[in-house]
């Protein structure tokens, strides 16, 4: 069994929030949201909505019993708008009705008079006007300014990357049920049950123990539900708190697209300095992050952008500065990679531009600067267990890069209208939450008297396979079959104070806690066996394959018998354990420390064939040598790598979020926002599991896998760029993702309109 949910998934029997049986008396909520991106609310009229049959109540900020505030890092985000609205889609009021249809219909009967205020959608413009979420930060190694003077070549440029819609299959939603004494049981489609619990308690003005949050699984999160499930949960809970009735809200796709935040678009300036031997001596980068209307997770995302400014290269003199810019867009949020991919796109752009200026292959610069064991990152940590070169050379040799190049060159020599392009994309991604305190987790294990086992952790299953991995950890530690183990829902009453399932660290953190709990139980059970079997001091007792072994021989006590014996002896068959990643620290005054438990490395070779008449393209292959460590589940890990690669390609080449100058989302449906489909998937994805030792901090030495492979998608951008160059060798190409077929076509024929060099994405305005 590779994936515990596979059976119920294929039968359509897996339960998501909207599948939970609805309790009698349940009411339905729907948000009335701002029809403009920035303005002052002059009046709000919902009398017509209230008179509609079936409408129970319309709630506004005035009905909030606690704080009208959901900002987790910066208190700058009201749950419901009061005097101003700051983005198109900002919740203003909540209709509560007897049916979902009635609630939605009533929303259309609400009217607000809003005096328009200036709309800013561009991060550079926001920055110029001083609209920053938090003060800028700068990370430094060496002295870039001085080092540029000693460089043979200095190249400058700009790189823009667009946002990305999470498009989890299951939209946001929450369902609150009132219990006695004001308690609320809340079902939420969230990666962060504790964040939901904390936010709801804050908005209602009640202690956290009044709120129980339960999560069975998500139909995808991708970061979009790390923090942004909070508002929907708080809204339904507010209604339940006021009305003492169950209240449910599951967003329609277009509501979700309009109201929820996305990956941060970034606009960046770079300057890169190299010596004749192609060593990068200096790199200076300024990131303008488009944060949207409120902080949400933007400061943490910005921090990870700074951490990953160098991707997988050693750059002795580096200065990276980041601005988190407040704009009138929905608040952008966590998205697979958490700001890392945006930083890596910039350094890869800088290297590509330098290669073009110097007339050398991009790969020559990449290869000459790969991190080596002991190299210092600009944040103080040193590369330990560095696999950068190993991954690169393995990819080069295993997949015969020289041959791939030869094939592409031959093809290009013989084809006038189709061109091939190839790019290498090496990656390095730090594993740990960048906030030290978030690197903790708990687990609770019950062994029932029949020998079956119930496991609870803080991990949320969102399709990434964490439940399967937790079952494997428990089965291995207790030496029992997987069929004895059941993964419980994620519940704040069973496991408190959880970090969100995020940062690719869920299996590491929760798995280590689970190991500790299982180890304690095993020790206890072995002590029971020793007494029961009358084992002598000098004899060894082991639990293996569901039975007790004494000095390597079957001891005559099976798992069920052992559990019965322990129970009869009144031995505790439950255990709760807590884990905190050791040895990590970071000092934000010096911007130095040891923030990551370990790094994940890998290298991809991406090949594309471009149709130069149409601007359409097919990715021929993505061939990867990846550092999984000792993968504990190769099917799950391969699935994560493949999914992440396709999602990365979507971000870089297809998914074009467009807001107009008034801040309205134009790409507001799947007809106008293109995510990868089966035709966008590379013809071949070949992921090689490189033989690497893993890390002590990785669960069973199986390295974190959720986010890192997404960044191979950046290789798709540069492969495509190289294919364009094969057609128009001297084209002036900007660095502006996504490189959509439309932009490719314009780049292929610059003579038709020299002003049409791709330049719009990344900037939110159209
Ligand atoms: N895979 C699936 N199928 N669905 C998801 O929502 N989220 C990604 C990644 N893989 C996601 C996914 C993100 S953003 C992260 S941080 C990790 O999974 C979280 O899970 P992990 O910590 O267990 O890797
Ligand atoms: N990744 C994901 N979520 C986070 C992080 C991170 O590094 N830091 C804080 N929240
Ligand atoms: Mo992932 S962006 O850390 O949820």
Give a written overview of the molecule.
Residues 11-118 form the Aldehyde oxidase/xanthine dehydrogenase a/b hammerhead domain. Keywords: Molybdenum, Oxidoreductase. This is Xanthine dehydrogenase molybdopterin binding subunit. The chain starts with 5 loop residues before the first helix and ends in an 18-residue tail after the last helix. The strands form seven sheets. Strands 3-5-1-12-9-10-11-20 form an eight-stranded mixed sheet, with helices on both faces. The radius of gyration is 27 Å and the shape is globular. α9 (298-307) packs parallel to α10, α10 crosses α11 and α15 (506-533) crosses α16. The protein folds into three domains: 6-118 and 166-259, Aldehyde Oxidoreductase, domain 3, CATH 3.90.1170; 266-433 and 591-764, Aldehyde Oxidoreductase, domain 4 (2-Layer Sandwich); 440-580, Aldehyde oxidase/xanthine dehydrogenase, molybdopterin binding domain (Aldehyde Oxidoreductase, domain 4), CATH 3.30.365. The protein has 766 residues and is of the alpha+beta class. The protein contains 19 helices and 30 strands. Helices cover 29% and strands 25% of the residues. Hypoxanthine (HPA) binds next to α9.
């Amino acid at each position: 069994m590779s994936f515990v949910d596979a059976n119920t998934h294929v039968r359509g029997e897996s339960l998501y929030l909207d599948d939970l049986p609805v309790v009698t008396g349940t009411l339905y909520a729907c948000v009335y949201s701002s029809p403009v991106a920035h303005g002052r609310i002059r009046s709000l009229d919902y009398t017509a909505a209230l008179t509609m049959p079936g409408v129970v109540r319309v709630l506004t900020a005035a009905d909030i019993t606690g704080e009208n505030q959901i900002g987790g890092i910066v208190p700058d985000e009201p749950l419901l708008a009061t005097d101003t609205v700051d983005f198109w889609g900002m919740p203003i009021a909540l209709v509560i009705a007897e049916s979902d249809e009635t609630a939605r219909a009533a929303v259309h009967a609400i009217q607000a008079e809003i005096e328009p205020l200036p709309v800013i959608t561009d991060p550079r413009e926001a920055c110029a006007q001083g609209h920053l979420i938090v003060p800028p930060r700068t990370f430094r190694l060496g002295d870039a300014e001085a080092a540029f003077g000693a460089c043979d070549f200095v190249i400058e440029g700009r790189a823009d990357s667009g946002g990305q819609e999470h498009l989890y299959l299951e939209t946001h939603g929450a369902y609150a049920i009132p219990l006695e004494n004001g308690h609320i049981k809340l079902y939420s489609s969230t990666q962060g049950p504790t964040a939901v619990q904390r936010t709801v308690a804050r908005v209602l003005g009640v202690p956290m123990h009044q709120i129980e949050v339960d999560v069975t699984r998500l139909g995808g999160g991708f970061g979009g539900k790390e923090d942004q499930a909070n508002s929907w949960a708080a809204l339904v809970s507010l209604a339940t708190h006021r009305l003492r009735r169950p209240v449910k809200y599951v967003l329609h796709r277009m509501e979700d697209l309009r109201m929820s935040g996305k990956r941060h678009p970034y606009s960046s300036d770079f300057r890169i300095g190299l010596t004749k031997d192609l060593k990068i001596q200096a790199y200076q980068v300024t990131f303008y992050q488009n944060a949207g209307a409120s902080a949400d997770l933007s400061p943490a995302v910005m921090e990870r952008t700074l951490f990953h400014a160098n991707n997988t290269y050693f750059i002795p003199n580096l200065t990276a500065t980041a601005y988190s810019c407040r704009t009138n867009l929905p608040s952008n949020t966590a998205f697979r990679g958490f700001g890392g991919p945006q930083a890596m796109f910039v350094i890869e752009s800088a290297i590509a531009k330098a290669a073009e200026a110097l007339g050398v292959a991009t790969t020559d610069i990449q290869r000459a600067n790969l991190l080596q064991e002991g190299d210092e990152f600009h944040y103080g940590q040193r590369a330990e267990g560095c696999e950068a070169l190993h991954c690169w050379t393995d990819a080069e040799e295993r997949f015969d890069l020289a041959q791939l190049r030869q094939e592409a060159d031959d093809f290009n020599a013989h084809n006038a209208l189709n061109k091939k392009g190839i790019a290498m994309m090496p990656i390095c991604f730090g594993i740990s939450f960048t906030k030290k305190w978030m690197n903790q987790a708990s687990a609770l294990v019950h062994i029932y008297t029949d020998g079956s086992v119930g496991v609870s952790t803080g991990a949320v299953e969102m399709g990434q396979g964490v439940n399967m991995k937790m079952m494997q950890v428990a089965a291995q530690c207790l030496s029992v079959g997987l069929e004895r183990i059941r993964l419980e829902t994620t519940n704040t009453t069973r496991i408190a104070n959880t970090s969100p399932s995020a940062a690719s660290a869920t299996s590491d953190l929760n798995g280590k806690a689970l190991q500790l709990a299982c180890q304690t139980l095993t020790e206890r059970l072995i002590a029971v066996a020793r007494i029961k079997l009358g084992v002598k001091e000098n004899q060894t007792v082991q639990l293996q394959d569901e039975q007790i072994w004494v000095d390597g021989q079957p001891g005559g006590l099976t798992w069920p018998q052992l559990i019965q014996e322990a129970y009869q002896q009144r031995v505790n068959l439950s255990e709760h354990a807590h884990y905190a990643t050791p040895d990590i620290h970071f000092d934000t005054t010096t911007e130095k420390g040891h923030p990551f438990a370990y790094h994940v490395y890998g290298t991809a070779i991406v090949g594309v064939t471009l149709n130069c008449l149409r601007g359409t393209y097919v990715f021929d292959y993505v061939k990867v040598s990846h550092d999984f460590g000792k993968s504990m589940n190769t099917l799950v890990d391969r699935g994560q790598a493949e999914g992440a690669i396709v999602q990365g390609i979507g971000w870089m080449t297809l998914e074009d979020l467009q807001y107009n100058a008034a801040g309205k989302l134009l790409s507001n449906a799947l007809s106008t926002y293109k995510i990868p489909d089966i035709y966008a998937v590379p013809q071949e994805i070949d992921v090689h599991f490189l033989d690497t030792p893993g890390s002590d901090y990785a669960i069973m030495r199986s390295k974190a896998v959720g986010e890192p492979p997404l960044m191979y998608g950046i290789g798709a951008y540069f492969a495509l760029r190289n294919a364009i160059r094969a057609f128009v060798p001297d084209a002036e190409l900007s660095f502006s993702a996504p490189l959509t077929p439309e932009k490719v076509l314009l780049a292929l024929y610059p003579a038709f309109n020299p002003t049409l060099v791709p330049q719009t994405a990344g900037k939110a305005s159209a």
